[in-house]
Amino acid sequence: MKAVLWQGTNHVSVETVPDPTLLLPSDAIVRVSSTAICGSDLHLLDGFIPSMEKGDILGHEFMGEVVEVGRDVKTLKVGDRVVIPFNIACGTCDYCQRGLFSACDNSNPNHRMAEALYGATSGGGLFGYSHLYGGYAGGQAQYVRVPFADVGGFKIETDLPDEQVLFLTDIFPTGYQAAENCNIVRGRDVVAVFGAGPVGQFAARSAQMLGAAKVIIVDRFPERLRLAAEAGIETINYEKEDVLIALKEATGGRGPDHVIDAVGLEAHGHGPGALLDTAQQKMKLTFDRITALRWAILSCAKGGTVSMPGVYGGLVDKLPLGAAFAKGLTFKMGQTHTHRYIRPLLAHIEAGDIDPSFVITHRAALADAPQLYKTFRDKHDGCIKVVLNPWGESAGEVKRA
């Protein structure tokens, strides 16, 4: 089969590799019909997530058709159309039983590696996201093995096209959980979102769905701000305004009640802190550039919530913890418990409350993935979200959809 392989920092390729096979009776094999490049895949491309190995298959946003099931799989059968959460969960451990699927105790065979790095118990396994998270092959491929298939395979029994349900695998639930973590008071609370990429777009629209009185999004790319504005979201371009002053002015001097950091470890920005972050990251003195998180803490109103769906990789420096303490902020963060959101968010899609395909800017064949990884990372050609067809033919030069 064809698959997108990580070959080293700044290098991915599409190669022919062996088809996956059932390894355990609880596995299924899915023929992938649609897959996408996630913003967090760019952290792999840029070499910020440790334990990647040359030849690892990338991708954790995918869906398709079940073509083979193990003898213990009870809820899926060959021919079922399914979406697959990006995180892998056993469904039976204490964490899964409490709905904390991303903290699964049984799906990460390399948990000791993660514990050694982070100094704490690790999360569950992830598709296509390093050996730190299990070393599972990803879904930017024509076929993928799905462990714990009864837990991780969600049947899609409507005729909604792939593009309307594909993002249930990650970015829609991730944005929704980020907004839900804010405990928004309907009609009262103001929510600010740092980062107008795909997760930020879904976080902002989810905050609207949850009743925020006002949603403000912060970024520097006009096309991303325009996309948010089309949904009635107020925008701030941090390259044209002082973001902390602008947020105060937009909230009567109080600051947003809740702030969502949808950027994570590769934040851009300006000022001495951003410059020092960049220098320290290049010298391997810190894992993360935290400008967005720093702004989130400094701008958030007293008693508010800082919700962090953006990925962080390790130790950070110059975190204004004193400001967070003085304000009495609440922090919510972590990988999304995707399994708990798929069915309720699918109901919203079926009801017409939201069409997740609004975020797609580029559609292409799997063969075009290497070019599109760089287009997406460098924000060229207005790129916000890339969807790949594993069975399509490359059209050569890829243009915006």
TrEMBL record:
Keyword RNA-binding: no
Keyword Transit peptide on entry: no
Cofactor(s) demanded: Zn(2+)
Annotated Alcohol dehydrogenase-like N-terminal domain residues: 25-149
SUPFAM superfamilies found in the cross-reference section: GroES-like, NAD(P)-binding Rossmann-fold domains
Gene3D superfamilies reported in the protein's UniProt record: Medium-chain alcohol dehydrogenases, catalytic domain, NAD(P)-binding Rossmann-like Domain
Pfam families listed in its UniProt record: ADH_N (PF08240), ADH_zinc_N (PF00107)
InterPro entries the UniProt entry points to: ADH-like_C, ADH-like_N, ADH_Zn_CS, GroES-like_sf, NAD(P)-bd_dom_sf
Residue ranges of domain Alcohol dehydrogenase-like C-terminal in the record: 198-265
Keywords per UniProt: Metal-binding, Oxidoreductase, Zinc
GO terms for MF: oxidoreductase activity; zinc ion binding
PANTHER family registered for this protein in UniProt: DEHYDROGENASE, ZINC-CONTAINING, PUTATIVE (AFU_ORTHOLOGUE AFUA_2G02810)-RELATED (PTHR42813:SF2), ZINC-TYPE ALCOHOL DEHYDROGENASE-LIKE (PTHR42813)
UniProt similarity note: Belongs to the zinc-containing alcohol dehydrogenase family.
Protein name listed in UniProt: Glutathione-dependent formaldehyde dehydrogenase
Annotated source species: Deinococcus detaillensis
